[in-house]
Amino acid sequence: MAHPLTNTLHHRLPILTSVNLSFSSISSVTSSCAFNYGPKYTEILNRGTGGYRTATRRLVIGFGASFWAQFMSMAGNVGGKSFIASARQKGAIEQVLKNVEWPEQFPFKDEDFQRFDESPDTLFYEAPRFVTHIDDPAIAALTRYYSEVFPPSNTPGVALLDMCSSWVSHFPAGYKQERVVGMGLNKEELERNPVLTEYIVQDLNVNPKLPFEDNSFDVITNVVSVDYLTKPIDVFKEMSRVLRPGGLAVISFSNRCFFTKAISIWTSTGDADHAMIVGAYFHYSGGFEPPQAVDISPNPGRSDPMYI
């Protein structure tokens, strides 16, 4: 099941594979998150409830973000050559998480996980959005990647968990397993998803505890939603717990997001930082081997970037 491009993060006791993807260019002052408003979002913004505003830039950077800028500056020089400067070159992403000397303590502060819109996520997602949040080439690239690293379709006993799921999971066409669980915030979207055999509506920012037994899944996926997690270490610890030995976690992201719902450390940094941030989640949650990053962007500079 292993693949040369797979971002593998192996469970130390026992071994698990896991994936973290990211990279493009670093920007410590300008948000790399393009605005991504689905249907009816403008209507929601105009309701005037929960402190909604139009797209005014709100920058909350805690001590962690300041430290992170210095850390990335040091980490960005490998053999005297900055990988950050060449971040848009295909293949540069693979360098981001190589031989990282992580700080002893998790470097982020509570302020780094604040958001412009702190109203309940259940309110934001109460209306279904039957749209995709990355463009077709990026979706196709992700689907191809899944086809390379997923267990073969209809493998007896294999179970998958699609976290932060919606009406589509971008799995390969016709892909099926006995158990494919979706977790998300909108019941109508999850009901529409054809690959799911069951679903759970749960706000991970309120309750990060996954309602599953230990060693329940062979694969966990999360598509362009890691930037919304306000308790990522808790969630990643739970991922480690529910993954089976040899299990695979695939965290994919782009530079598209609902800006007001993405955490401050994400909207205040660029794509290279994002790879390091997700890598930090794996590292500090424990139970995984050192994370790696892969760039599967299909048309750099011409379509949405895509990272694992």
Short description:
This protein is of the alpha/beta class and 308 residues long. The protein contains eight helices and ten strands.
Number of helices: 8
Major β-sheet annotation: 6 strands, parallel
**Radius of gyration of CA atoms, rounded to a whole number:** 18 Å
Element pattern in H and E: EEHHEEHHEEHEEHEEHH
Which band does the percent of strand residues land in?
5-15%
Query: Residue ranges: pLDDT <50 for 5 or more in a row?
Result: 1-32, 35-61, 78-87
Summarize the amount of helix as a percent range: 10-25%
The helix-and-strand class reads alpha/beta
Tell me how many strands there are.
10
User: Given the C-alpha coordinates, what overall shape results?
Assistant: globular
For the biggest β-sheet, the strand order reads: 1-9-8-5-6-7
Average pLDDT score: 78
- Distance N to C terminus: 17 Å
Organism: Escallonia herrerae
Protein name: Methyltransferase type 11 domain-containing protein
InterPro entries: Methyltransf_11, SAM-dependent_MTases_sf
Domain Methyltransferase type: 181-251
Structure characterization notes:
- This is Methyltransferase type 11 domain-containing protein.
- The protein is α/β, with parallel strands linked by helices.
- Helices cover 23% and strands 14% of the residues.
- It has helices at 41-45, 63-75, 121-124, 136-149, 187-192, 232-242, 264-267, 271-285; strands at residues 19-20, 34-35, 77-78, 81-82, 159-163, 179-184, 198-201, 217-223, 243-252, 256-257.
- The strands form three sheets. A six-stranded parallel beta sheet has the order 1-9-8-5-6-7. The chain has a two-stranded parallel ribbon with strand order 2-10.
- Strand 6, helix 5 (187-192) and strand 7 (198-201) form a beta-alpha-beta unit.
- Helix 6 (232-242) crosses helix 8.
- It is globular, with a radius of gyration of 18 Å.
- It starts with 18 loop residues before the first strand and ends in a 23-residue tail after the last helix.
- Residues 1-32, 35-61 and 78-87 have low confidence and may be disordered.
